[in-house]
Design goal:
With 117 residues, the protein is an all-beta fold. It has strands spanning 3-7, 10-13, 18-25, 34-39, 46-51, 57-59, 67-72, 77-82, 91-97, 111-116.
């Protein structure tokens, strides 16, 4: 059974940084691509960034140059370093298996990121 546990969110001011973490279990982590997504109330969940099993990365245009996705296969953990945060980055952030589309319907509780102007 897939389990995903996100953490690291918080309330920050515009221009500041946060680092999100996601511990994933239920599949062989190092063999799988991983992705970060975010959702604002009333809107569909959107893809933010993905990292392949080999370490290749992809980013949504809205976060390119500001966010960095990475992974530590020894810890079954994927990270999202978010710099130069903007109020429009405010959302609940989730991770899932898969590079640009979620592989599973199971989601973690997410972690809230709030950026004040």
């Amino acid at each position: 059974q897939v389990q995903l546990a996100e953490s690291g969110g918080g309330l920050v001011q515009a221009g500041e940084s946060l680092r999100l973490s996601c511990v994933a279990s239920g599949r062989i982590f190092w063999l799988n691509d991983m992705g970060w997504y975010r959702q604002v109330p009333g809107k569909q969940r959107e893809w933010v960034a993905g990292i392949s099993s080999g370490g290749g990365t992809n980013y949504a245009d809205s976060v390119k140059g500001r966010f960095t996705i990475s992974r530590d296969n020894t810890k079954n953990t994927v990270y999202l370093q978010m710099n130069s945060l903007k109020p429009e980055d405010t959302a609940v952030y989730y991770c899932n298996f898969g590079l640009t589309t979620p592989k599973f319907d199971s989601w973690g509780q997410g972690t809230q990121v709030t950026v004040s102007s």
